[in-house]
């Protein structure tokens, strides 16, 4: 899965594009660009580092980094095998599984939050069962991670699957002839060959997890240092102290830009 | 196959940057999305052109009462349509301060109203107190925390949900806990012990009710009007000397394009008919 569009080699058109192309494009560019510009402009007027180093900003930042990293690790360990399953075998219910795994991409996060509460909440479908094991998920940092996995894991599965599917089947056949086990082939041929696609998935998943808001607010609540991640701190800060909201927004903006740049680098580097 | 992935990747390009950045830009829309009658800022601007419509920004705790008041007002004023936007008073205040188009602001506290008055965004002369509210403890139907007295709130293993300190209901709840702490029978550390049990600071009071309705926490502190609107929940009253009386002011916005109709609505709210609706929803009259 690439984020840049595939381009046929063509000679640059002679002359300029007409206004009929430039004007509509300009509208969209302004719609996206101006709010970002306004955010950066507002951030120059405030004492950036005072806010960035304030207790609630630092704890939100730490919590966001911690939870999104745990989310990525769990997604990597579970999503890669799933992507391999989907790419390499045909089985009954595969189409259904396919739709299910990709569903969170199009679901609104608030729906995800309610669904998570109804499943893993104290009074949820599996709540009493979890309770008997002494586990209570809502309002915990673990709930933040679960919400993030729910909304972001499909990006890794999607990307890794395309990577696996693109590998020449002859390689696998050759390894089979040599007597390699499925796990061996997965570990020593498939994962290394699909590493770039997996890495793309990791970056997409990480970016999505960092930005997760709606499901977290509903399933994990809002408590500083425990469940208040950066997007939640931005939301609460918006009403209370715009400075914190702007500073955290800028931090998230920078992280997102770095991740996007990394993605582009990954694509344009020759294989 | 290849083509569908290309399309998907284009969708991803759109989704990815929006994920993190949208946390900022989507704030106003996510507020309005939660309201019962979604009134986006854009649509309210359009609708304000019609002379017989009003956009009312009201505190989340007023949801049930104002829906009924609006329905009654529309019934007695044919051709008038009212648009309601409910959220935490502090969210509404921020939206108005950032230019949201509305005609009336009904706040759950004086502070948010005073800030808008100081900035000239509400007409100071139009501010009237139209209702009062008190706090009450709410419990899930089957009372999983076995809470029976106020003292139980300080029990170490309890899960308590409050509105955030920036929300009027959250501010009042903290004041009320402070009041209790002045009584020797609760002890000076009562407030600190209770606050240590807080598992979430919700962004408006209705979210506290929702968490208790789902049974996710053992107790919550909300307005008596919220308890009236959710009769299946258990309640524990707070003794009058410690309780906090929330005063609800209402006012016409300076930028309202229909100030006379806005004033007519406010007159209706403080009229006998309006007050009886508020009473039905658990509010006390403005005079008390």
Summarize the structure.
The complex is a heterodimer of chains A (271) and B (288). Chain A has 271 residues and is mainly alpha-helical.
Plain-language structure description:
Chain A has 13 helices and no strands. Chain A has 271 residues and is mostly helical. The longest helix of chain A is centred in the first third of the chain and has 34 residues. Helix content of chain B is 44%, strand content 18%. In chain B, α4 links the parallel β1 and β2. Chain B is elongated and about 55 Å long. The interface between A and B is large, with 49 and 42 residues.
The Cα radius of gyration of chain B reads 21 Å
Structural class of chain B: alpha/beta
Chain-averaged pLDDT of chain A: 88
Count of DSSP helices of chain A? Answer: 13
Largest interface: A-B, 49 and 42 residues
Strand content of chain B: 15-25%
Question: How big a fraction of the residues of chain A is strand?
Answer: under 5%
Describe the sheet with the most strands of chain A.
none
The separation of the N and C termini of chain A measures 14 Å
Number of helices of chain B: 12
The tally of beta strands of chain B, per DSSP, is: 10
Largest sheet of chain B: 5 strands, mixed
| Percentage of residues in helical conformation of chain A | over 70%
Q: What is the approximate shape of chain A? A: globular
- Strand numbers in spatial order across the main sheet of chain B: 2-1-3-10-4
SS-based structural class of chain A? Answer: mainly alpha
The radius of gyration computed from the alpha-carbon positions of chain A, rounded to a whole number of angstroms, is 22 Å
Shape of chain B: elongated
- Helix-strand pattern of chain A, N to C? HHHHHHHHHHHHH
Mean pLDDT of chain B: 83
């Amino acid at each position: 899965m690439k984020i840049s569009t595939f381009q046929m080699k063509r000679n640059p058109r002679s002359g300029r594009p007409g206004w009929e192309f430039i004007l509509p494009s300009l509208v969209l560019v302004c719609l996206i660009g101006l709010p970002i510009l306004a955010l950066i402009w507002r951030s120059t007027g405030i004492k950036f580092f005072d806010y960035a180093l304030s207790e609630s900003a630092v704890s939100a930042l730490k919590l966001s980094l911690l939870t999104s990293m745990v989310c990525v690790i769990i997604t990597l360990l579970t999503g890669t095998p799933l992507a391999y399953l989907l790419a390499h075998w045909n089985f009954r219910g595969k189409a259904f599984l396919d739709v299910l795994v990709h569903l969170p991409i199009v679901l609104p996060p608030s729906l995800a939050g309610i669904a998570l509460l109804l499943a893993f909440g104290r009074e949820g479908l599996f709540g009493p069962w979890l309770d008997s094991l002494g586990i209570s998920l809502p309002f915990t940092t673990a709930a933040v991670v679960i919400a993030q996995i729910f909304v972001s894991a499909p990006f890794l599965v999607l990307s890794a699957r395309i990577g696996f599917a693109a590998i020449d089947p002859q390689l696998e056949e050759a390894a089979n002839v040599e007597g390699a086990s499925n796990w061996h082939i997965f570990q020593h041929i498939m994962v290394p060959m699909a590493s770039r696609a997996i890495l793309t998935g990791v970056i997409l998943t990480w970016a999505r997890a960092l930005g997760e808001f709606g499901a977290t607010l509903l399933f994990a609540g809002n408590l500083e240092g425990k469940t208040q991640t950066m997007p939640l701190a931005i939301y609460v800060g918006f009403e209370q102290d715009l400075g914190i909201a702007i500073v955290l927004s800028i931090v998230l903006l920078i992280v997102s830009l770095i991740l996007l740049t990394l993605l582009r680098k990954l694509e344009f580097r020759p294989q | 196959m290849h083509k569908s992935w290309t399309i998907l990747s284009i969708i991803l390009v759109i989704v990815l940057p929006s994920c993190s950045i949208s946390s900022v830009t989507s704030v106003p829309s996510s507020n309005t999305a939660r309201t019962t009658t979604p009134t986006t800022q854009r649509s309210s601007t359009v609708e304000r052109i019609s002379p017989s419509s009003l956009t009312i920004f009201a505190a989340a705790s007023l949801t049930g009462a104002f829906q009924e008041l609006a329905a009654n007002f529309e019934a007695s004023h044919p051709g008038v349509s009212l648009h309601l936007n409910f959220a935490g008073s502090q969210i509404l205040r921020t939206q108005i301060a950032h230019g949201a188009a509305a005609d009336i602001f009904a706040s759950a506290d004086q502070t948010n109203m005073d800030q808008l008055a100081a900035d000239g965004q509400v007409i100071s002369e139009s501010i009237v107190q139209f209702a009062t509210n008190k706090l009450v403890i709410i419990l899930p139907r089957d009372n999983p925390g076995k809470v029976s007295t106020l003292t139980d709130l300080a029990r170490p293993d309890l899960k308590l949900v409050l509105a955030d300190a920036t929300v009027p209901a959250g501010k009042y709840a903290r004041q009320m806990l402070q009041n209790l702490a002045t009584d020797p029978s609760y002890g000076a550390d009562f407030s600190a012990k209770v606050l240590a049990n807080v598992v979430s600071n919700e962004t408006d009071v209705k979210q506290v009710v929702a968490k208790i309705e789902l049974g996710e926490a053992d107790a919550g502190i909300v307005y008596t009007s919220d308890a009236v609107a959710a009769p299946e929940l258990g309640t524990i009253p707070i003794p009058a000397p410690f309780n906090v009386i929330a005063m609800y002011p209402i006012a016409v916005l300076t930028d309202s394009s229909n100030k006379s109709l806005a004033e007519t609505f406010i007159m209706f709210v403080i009229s006998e008919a309006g007050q009886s609706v508020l009473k039905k929803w658990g509010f006390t009259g403005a005079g008390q």
